[in-house]
């Protein structure tokens, strides 16, 4: 096996996990990454002593001994991460009104019943779902008997799965009368499957979705270290332009600089659209694949305003969503009536002592506007970024007046940044949205009529997320 050569396109979480599994099976592996560091979307950047996190809010698998924790151990020593778990997931505020979304379902239920007794029936239904799914396990073996046993074990979840998998967050929001509670369900991405938030809260209830101190850079660094210790190679600044095919077999790649690299197997852990329709020129598709790319909706892109504040934000919430009195315009097609701030007062590695890194994430589907603006008019692009930053800061300072005049660093990333650094289609933050139409299953890892080629990562796993990188790589390594 030592002679078999695998090329992996992309050093995001999926590409790194793929590299580790194949090295363990004896393949000679090279990961080709267009950027200068690993991580893809799972990244952060440093500016004047502050670190601005791009990704991890929570990592499923933080609880020792749970299913995902055991799988992470296959690709790195997760015990080296220190997890932080606030009892509060999110605080939602409108002027003097405040709703706390607790991670524990019992505390959450008590809080919601106290603040919104008019919604008692829907609240109990929702927290009941969170408790139910907190014990749910995903299949982790394809062996016949394991599968059979698995189906027996999940019977009790099937009626709820069947009933609620047809609902979106926006559908479910209609059940609530309390404005803040309604807002919790429909302020984000309305088309997202209700079960996406149920599962997220279920993992939190089970204390299996903590935040790793040091964030994405720490976690990705440990996974990259494992890969390199196993003898895997990564080539940075190596953008793949084309996947070479001979007699319906992938035989290597051509880089943008013209270099050709041969391999026995090629795996794309990069953007799905670019892989299928550009690197492979759309030659290996069928109706099913075309229909996915025509009809499935990706997660939105985003503008991220990050700033460093000379204050500890002691006793302030780590994640706050503020409902605004007036809408603000982010770009010609995006208006926001609320803003979310992550206050990293719990991660001492992100700022010098007594100071705090803050990140405001603003979703937008208007990626074309940002990419075109940056290409055509750099000065207008800079003005637009600054305008949004000032509006965001004004809202933040109104809520936290003590922060006034203490902001020492400012950074704005846009969909143009996301696209430039990760190549994701439509500058999406997480691949395909998990919706009632996509369901929970993975999409095919292979393409019709193409041998020795596989895909892994968020574009074959609706809902995306870091675990999707590991799970898809794990499956493909078994197929290979
Ligand atoms: C704001 C935000 C918050 C998130 N929060 C969480 C969270 O709390 N928990 C969680 O689990 N997930 C979260 N996610 C989602 C998670 O980050 C992604 O789903 C996951 O990182 C995707 O990994 P991937 O390897 O599939 O793809 P990517 O990370 O996109 O990696 C693809 C890699 O391929 C490279 N590449 C692309 N094209 C080429 C080419 N032609 N040649 C060479 N290299 C190429 C890219 O540079 C990149 O490194 C969040 C994402 C965002 C943006």
UniProtKB/TrEMBL annotation:
Superkingdom field: Bacteria
Pfam family, one: Amino_oxidase
GO biological process, one term: carotenoid metabolic process
Location of the Amine oxidase domain: 13-477
GO terms assigned for molecular function: oxidoreductase activity
Coiled coil regions in record: none
Protein name: Amine oxidase domain-containing protein
Species the sequence originates in: Candidatus Fischerbacteria bacterium RBG_13_37_8
């Amino acid at each position: 096996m030592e002679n078999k050569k695998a090329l992996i396109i992309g050093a995001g979480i999926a590409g790194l996990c793929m590299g580790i599994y194949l090295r363990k099976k004896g393949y000679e592996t090279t990961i080709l990454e267009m950027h200068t560091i690993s991580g893809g979307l799972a990244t952060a950047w440093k500016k004047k002593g502050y670190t601005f996190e791009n990704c991890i809010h929570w990592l499923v698998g933080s609880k020792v001994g749970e299913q995902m924790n055991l799988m992470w151990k296959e690709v790195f020593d997760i015990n080296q991460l220190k997890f932080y778990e606030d009892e509060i997931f999110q605080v939602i505020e409108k002027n003097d009104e405040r709703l706390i979304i607790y991670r524990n379902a019992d505390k959450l239920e008590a809080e919601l019943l106290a603040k919104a007794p008019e919604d008692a029936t829907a609240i109990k239904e929702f927290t009941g779902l969170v408790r139910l799914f907190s014990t749910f396990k995903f299949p982790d073996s394809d062996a016949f008997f394991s599968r059979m046993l698995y189906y027996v074990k999940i019977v009790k979840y099937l009626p709820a799965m069947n009933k609620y998998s047809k609902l979106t967050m926006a559908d479910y929001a209609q059940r609530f009368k309390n404005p803040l509670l309604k807002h919790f369900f429909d302020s984000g991405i309305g088309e997202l499957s209700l079960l996406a938030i149920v599962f997220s809260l279920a993992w939190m209830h089970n204390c299996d979705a903590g935040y790793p101190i040091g964030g994405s850079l720490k976690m990705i660094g440990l996974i990259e270290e494992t890969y390199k210790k196993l003898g895997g190679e990564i080539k940075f600044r190596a953008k793949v332009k084309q996947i070479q095919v001979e007699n319906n077999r992938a035989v290597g790649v051509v880089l943008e600089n013209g270099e050709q690299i041969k391999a026995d197997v090629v795996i794309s852990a990069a953007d799905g659209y670019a892989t299928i329709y550009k690197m492979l020129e759309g030659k290996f598709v069928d109706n099913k694949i075309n229909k996915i790319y025509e009809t499935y909706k990706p997660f939105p892109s985003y503008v991220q305003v990050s700033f460093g504040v000379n204050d500890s934000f002691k006793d302030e919430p780590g994640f706050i969503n503020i409902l605004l009195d007036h809408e603000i315009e982010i770009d010609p097609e995006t208006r926001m009536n609320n803003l979310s701030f992550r206050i990293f007062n719990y991660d001492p590695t992100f700022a010098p002592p007594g100071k705090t890194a803050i990140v405001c994430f603003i979703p937008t589907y208007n990626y074309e506007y940002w990419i075109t603006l940056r290409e055509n008019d750099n000065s207008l692009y800079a003005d637009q970024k600054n305008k949004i930053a000032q509006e965001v800061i004004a809202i933040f300072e109104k809520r936290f007046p003590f922060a006034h005049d203490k902001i020492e660093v400012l950074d704005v990333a846009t969909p143009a940044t996301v696209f430039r650094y990760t190549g994701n289609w439509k500058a999406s933050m997480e691949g395909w949205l998990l919706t009632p139409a996509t369901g929970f299953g993975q999409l095919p890892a292979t393409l019709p009529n193409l041998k020795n080629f596989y895909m892994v990562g968020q574009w074959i796993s609706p809902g995306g997320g870091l675990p999707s990188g590991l799970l898809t790589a794990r499956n493909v390594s078994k197929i290979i």
